[in-house]
Write a structure and sequence with these properties.
The complex is a heterodimer. By secondary structure, chain A is an all-alpha fold. Helix content of chain A is 74%, strand content 0%. By secondary structure, chain B is an alpha/beta fold. In chain B, helix 3 packs antiparallel against helix 4. Classes of the chains: A mainly alpha, B alpha/beta. Chains A and B meet through helix 9 and helix 10 of A and helix 2, helix 3 and helix 5 of B.
Chain lengths: 348, 251
Amino acid sequence: MSAATTPAVAVTPARPGRPALLAGLVALTGAAVTGLLVGPAGIDAGQALFALADALPWVEVDHHLTEVEMRVLFDIRLPRVVMGAVVGAVLALAGAAYQGVFRNPLADPYLLGVAAGAGLGATLAFSWSGTEALVALFALAGGLVAVVITYTLGRSVGGRTTTSLILAGVAVAAFATAIQTYVLQRHVESIREVYSWILGRLITVGWSEVVGLAPYAAVSALVLIGSRRLLDVLALGDEEATALGVRVSMVRWVLVAAATLATAAAVSVSGLIGFVGIIVPHTIRILFGWSYRVIVPLSVLFGAAFLVTADLAARTLVAPGELPIGVVTAFFGAPFFLLVLRTIRRAP
Amino acid sequence: MIGWREVEVSYDGNRVLGPVTLEVGDGEWLGLIGPNGAGKSTMLKAAVGVVDHRGTVSLGNGRRRVGLDVAWMPQRPNLPEDMGVADYVLLGRTPHVGHLGSESRHDVESARAAVERLDLADLARRPLGTLSGGEAQRAVLARAIAQEAPILLLDEPTANLDIGHGIEVLEVVDELRRREGLTVVTAVHDLTLAGRFAERLALLAKGVIVADGPPGEVLTEELLTAHYGPGIRVIEDADGPTVVPVRRSIG
């Protein structure tokens, strides 16, 4: 153990490898292009491809799309694909952040009551006002209130442990769902609307929703990606992170706030889309490594690709009808959730 | 320098430590000894602010900059099982890296030096979950050393090590202490080992310091049997006191 004899020890900060980044980019591009070319309007895929290429800067390609087809492509399909990508990226990021902050591989917007809180907020908005504009605001407020209550309860009950926090989240979610059910029973007329929202949809999305979501998504993505190294530090536990000079409570607050803001904003435009936050980060973890410095950036790419693909499935599987996208993600997500649960239980 | 002044720690209203007043000078090695539950770990935890305490802990002459001024090696560290050894040691540089920043060349170099110093070069890429108890122990110490803090608090640094590796690890710490002038405080169960390396021992019992001085003065049969119970013999030789167990039923 005296002087080192081995040269060149491999000590390098973890980062996503080039193959992983490439795979993510290919997956996202593939999903987005397919999403743009496929749809019930019956636009010729080849011509649509030319039109898309033509829209790129410094590229000129001839195409034969009509004005209506152009509008379908650029004002219906494109915003939907972009929205799917943003919502998917944000949900995957939030899931990864919650898992890191709470050191719980099953943590996601559902466990913390964020989704239920957002759902309650949206239900209240539907029942009381019926105004679409208020739904987003109420969902946002509901999600934030839920996570604040979860956090406060968890701390007051269990001190510095994180398990108490998750339990508090379950209780908050149950409570919010109970109130939501009560409100729904009192306002039977809005049940259909609320259920279609709860199941998730990207159907009615246009550019205005994309523009509305973008700032929230950008802010929280910047915070979460910037904090990826800290998520690795938090993996050492509160005590050891504190001893390394990290102000654990403050960092946890900032990360939870960022993740919740993103989730609630996404939920308010797209409805409740579950399991993205569990499927995507775990798949990345299995394929490309344990470090949040790898998982967080890649979650953006793969989360976006995943949800665009799920949306494609939602609108083609029962065409000309459409499945709620939340049904598609749950179909793949629920078995995946059980798989993760099994591997955790097997670990010591 | 690290000093505890009137430090007290309570869990649920029960006082488990203190009041404790103790000062360890620059470059000094103090061994904290005492029976299970005497408060050794708690005293170290109070110093890095991971348990709430009354009284004050001073590091050097300034305010307490946990992480930069003091490094702590916990008795039961969390070892994320998929994390690689080198990545783990690199986390020791956290106090030097901004919250949103990433490691500089110097940070990577310090981590590399710590990996080599603890003979972990061949294990650098191994996940923590695959290490033996002793290897993991060295990884944790390497992380603490990578912090390059002037004060090292080590809670049972030799707990999972055989006697040979135990001595080796403490030699590494001693070499660092002499070369860099580190202040070292170790909580150690092995009384003989504690006396061989520490210049000064403090005996904690039921949360308070009952003896404080050079090993020859603290490791006496009278003091040890009073606080650990009967069945302890102390043999003095040129290297210092050696503590050996004696069967109570026979002795």
